[in-house]
């Protein structure tokens, strides 16, 4: 009886990732080099001596946490390598690591002599691209490391932003948001790298064009451990025209952070007194406070709150 079942249409994955870049042999059987007669390893899993594997010169990751490596090594000694590393063959008894450097380094610490590995075909540009994409797919990357990897994929691998988005499974807007981080001043970039501020903080700071103002808000963020929402409010205050109640004699010279704090103080005074408050200050920290009242009773109410009567 004929099978009338329709083939299942599987939804295409968003990102091509590493899989699309790795050229596997269709069969795990060994291959023979026709020119030399040499038996070459298959594209399947092979057990390869650690001494024959070189590290990836295109590896964008330069720092490996020693404690985390030791933990992985301890796990390997008990469980073995669950996920094989990936290498490419350079010549007889010489391979180059494509992905899995943590597993490679931890295997050495664990005292292994060989590791399971996939042998792939890849040129230098593909090596770089695969190393960068694998790096991006790590869970513990900070936003700046991702931004630098995106930039390298665009410049060194000659990808367009749409192609990059396909590779890493992100839309163009997300990719562009990361790339914009590279326009921030070095001090703020260092803060992202050292995880002093989050991607959310950084995205808010990007919208401040003046570097001095960016740095002023950045320093305040660190000193007062401001949330992303508070930083966004600071930035928003810079882009809004100051209200009459918070005018200054020289607006251009008033520090943006001070202007924001002045507005917050005015709000607190108004809330405390239950009345509209006008608070003015100039760049020399001189100013005045005005508290309007609607009647004698209103004045007495304000004076009582101020504990004057």
List keywords for this structure.
309 residues, alpha/beta, Conserved hypothetical protein from pyrococcus furiosus pfu- 392566-001, ParB domain, 5-stranded mixed beta sheet, two-stranded antiparallel sheet, 12 helices, 9 strands, 44% helix, elongated
Compact overview of the structure:
With 309 residues, the protein is of the alpha/beta class. It contains twelve helices and nine strands.
Strand % is 5-15%
Largest sheet: 5 strands, mixed
Helix content percent band = 40-55%
Outline, from the CA principal axes? elongated
Q: How large, in whole angstroms, is the Cα Rg?
A: 30 Å
Order of helices and strands: EEEEHEEHEHHHHHHHHHEEH
Structural class: alpha/beta
Do you know the CATH topology of the domain at 37-122? Conserved hypothetical protein from pyrococcus furiosus pfu- 392566-001, ParB domain
Task: Explain the overall architecture.
The chain is an alpha/beta fold and 309 residues long. Among the domains are: 37-122, Conserved hypothetical protein from pyrococcus furiosus pfu- 392566-001, ParB domain (Alpha-Beta Complex), CATH 3.90.1530; 198-240; 244-305, no CATH class. 44% of the residues lie in helices and 13% in strands. The chain has twelve helices and nine strands. The longest helix has 18 residues, at 256-273. 24% of the residues are buried. The model is unreliable at 5-16, 22-42 and 241-252 (pLDDT under 50).
SSE topology sketch:
Elements lengths: L30 E2 L6 E2 L4 E5 L3 E2 L11 H14 L5 E7 L2 E6 L1 H9 L4 E7 L3 H13 L6 H13 L5 H8 L3 H9 L5 H8 L5 H8 L4 H14 L3 H12 L16 H18 L4 E4 L5 E4 L5 H10 L4
Parallel strand pairs: 4-6, 5-7
Antiparallel strand pairs: 1-2, 3-7, 5-6, 8-9
Helix pairs in contact: 1-2, 3-4, 4-6, 5-6, 8-10
């Amino acid at each position: 009886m004929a099978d009338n079942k329709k083939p299942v249409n599987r939804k295409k994955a968003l990102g091509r990732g590493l899989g699309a870049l790795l050229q596997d042999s269709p069969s795990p059987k060994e291959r023979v080099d026709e020119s030399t007669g040499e038996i070459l390893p298959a594209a399947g899993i092979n057990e390869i001596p650690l001494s024959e594997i070189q590290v990836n010169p295109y590896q964008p990751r330069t720092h490996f946490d020693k404690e985390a490596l030791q933990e992985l090594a301890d796990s390997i000694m008990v469980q073995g390598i669950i996920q094989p590393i990936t290498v490419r063959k350079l010549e007889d008894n010489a391979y180059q690591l494509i992905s899995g450097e943590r597993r490679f380094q931890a295997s050495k610490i664990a005292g292994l002599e060989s590791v399971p590995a996939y042998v792939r075909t890849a040129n230098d540009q593909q090596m770089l691209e695969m190393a960068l994409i694998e790096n991006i797919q790590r869970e513990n990357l900070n936003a700046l490391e991702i931004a630098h990897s995106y930039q390298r994929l665009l410049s060194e691998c000659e990808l367009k932003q749409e192609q990059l988005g396909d590779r890493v499974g992100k839309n163009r807007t997300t990719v562009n948001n990361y790339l914009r981080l590279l326009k921030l001043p070095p001090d703020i970039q260092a803060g992202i790298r050292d995880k002093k501020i989050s991607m959310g903080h950084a995205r808010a700071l990007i919208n401040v064009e003046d570097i001095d103002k960016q740095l002023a808000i950045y320093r305040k963020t660190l000193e007062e451990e401001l949330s992303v929402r508070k930083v966004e409010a600071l930035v928003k205050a810079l882009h809004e025209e100051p209200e009459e109640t918070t005018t200054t004699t020289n607006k251009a010279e008033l520090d943006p952070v001070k202007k924001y704090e002045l507005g917050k103080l005015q709000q607190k005074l108004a809330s405390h007194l239950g009345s509209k408050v006008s608070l003015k200050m100039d760049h020399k920290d001189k100013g005045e406070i005005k508290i309007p009242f609607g009647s004698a009773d209103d004045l007495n109410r304000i004076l009582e709150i101020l504990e004057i009567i």
